[in-house]
Amino acid sequence: MIRALPAVRPRWRSGADIVIVGSGAAGIAAALAAAARGKQVLMVTKDLTGGATPLAQGGMAAAIGPGDSAARHARDTIDAGAGLCEPETVATLAAGAPTAISRLAALGARLERVSLRLEGGHSRHRIVHAGGDATGAEVHRVLREALLASPVRVLDSTAALDLLLTEEGVVGGLLAATIGPGGELDPGVVTAGSVVLAAGGLGQAFATTTNPPGTTGDALALAARAGARLRDPEFVQFHPTVLWETRTGQRPLITEALRGAGAVLRDLDGRPLMAGRHRLGDLAPRDVVSAVMHERIDDGARHLWLDATALGADALETGFPAVTAACRARGIDPVTEFIPVAPGAHYSCGGVQADMDGRTSVPGLYAVGEAASTGLHGANRLASNSLTEAVIAGRRAGGAVGAPEAAGSARPSGTPLPPPPGPGVSAASWPALAAAMSRYAGVLRDRAGLDSLLRAAREVPEARQETAGSVRAGELDLAVVEATNLHTVSVLVATAALRREESRGCHRRRDAPWTRPDARHTVLHWDGGGLRDVADAPVGMAS
Q: Residue 529 and residue 494: Cα distance in Å, rounded?
């Protein structure tokens, strides 16, 4: 059911030792690390100034406060991950987090490392932040400045179309295309011994999301078409507090740190929502809070309330300026009024199966950040672990892919080619499919709904009928590429959710409310003819 992109005729060529796809924290960290080892690095990105990293509000989790420890951080991560975290990966992240913070500070990041914040699922105040609620923007600022001062070449306004593989299945580069002002594409070939996928994020597959335009599951779709192993795509985390609006698409995030500072979720009658529902109350893990909220919304509410009025004007305007501004821009004053909120698609806990050095099942292919499933997040990501992971895993991958033995093993031995072409997906189908994803693969799911979703995916119109030869340059546009990638993401999420007949973490089944005693990963592989299950993968043995 996965559809390939229509063929294109490349009009330009480039090359490098290593190609990085994506320019968020993970991609830039990987690029800088590889370039520091003398590798020729080329970055391909749709928007060097955009992406999800600059929008991250909460912060970076690191055990640097008094009474805290890496062991506590690891335990909180594993508790939130609902049995599917890989313990060694978690330990690596928790141990490396303080150093990652120090390195960013050394680059010039203005991080608050003394007055740490508390977020859901954490047993200690350990959230490093910047600018009140603008941590991602600060991290991206310093990393981007370092990138622009480095020898890394950047192809901005450029989309990755497909990986190039030799007959032996080894990565040999990337089929890419520069993006014109109207979304028209000028395709070309980038040869490279290794490719690092760092274009994470698939929130645009849903009708309501915190993710910006452009987060269309590109890395997951590229890896799927190349035959890489894909792990746990069913685990899509829904952030509980997204500013509710009647329109669909990207909506402002209301950071969890606001609840850490004392804000309270309330039902439409003003009663505390989480009272008696979890020992951590409003700071329960996100999957728990989102599920409780969805119960009330299913009962007829269109949204619920977040009450931050007790915090006062100074705390809101100084500590949470982005949230306060977003609310006031929509006619809501959080100092005196409740904020209407509802869950929205936020973060993909699964992805391309990879270790903490980014290595995947395809020789020469690496994946980092939200694009990767390293086993850190398990079935539900602990708040503020993602930005920390991006910096750590990105740097590790840049070192691994830059090592002589890694680069040598990934050197192609034949002419690399993209996957066989296909009809693609009509861009006009995107809104209807996103609505079906939110309805049937949202916070709560069941077999009937997931079956309906897969039927809808099968019936999505093609971008064009197959014709002999390649399409003319410019005939394939960005909208078709993104719609095709979103279609792939939808099929992967729905297929994995259908096969996981239990409720675990941020995957909740109405018709399977139990949690199985044996925690196992879902691992899928596209062989060109269909999605296949890789042998059952127990925790600790899936990498």
A: 18
The reported pLDDT for the residue numbered 117 is 92
DSSP H helices in 381-508? 385-401, 404-409, 430-440, 447-458, 478-499
Gap between the Cα atoms of 205 and 237, Å rounded: 13
Q: Which residue out of 231, 266, 286, 520 is catalytically annotated?
A: 286
The pLDDT tens digits of the residues spanning 11-55 come to 999 999 999 999 999 999 999 999 999 999 999 999 999 888 998
Domains of the chain: 18-235+346-409 (3.50.50.60), 239-344 (3.90.700.10), 427-515 (1.20.58.100)
CA-closest candidate to residue 1, choices 447, 484, 532, 531: 531
Assigned token pair, 482? 């993104």
Weakly modelled stretches of the chain, pLDDT under 70: 402, 404-413, 464-475, 535-538, 540-543
CA nearest to 103, candidates 54, 142, 69 = 142
Distance CA 201, CA 371 (A): 7
266 is catalytic: no
CA dist 190 and 192 (Å) reads 6
Q: What pTM does this model have?
A: 0.92
For residues 539 and 543, what is the distance between their CA atoms, to the nearest angstrom? 9
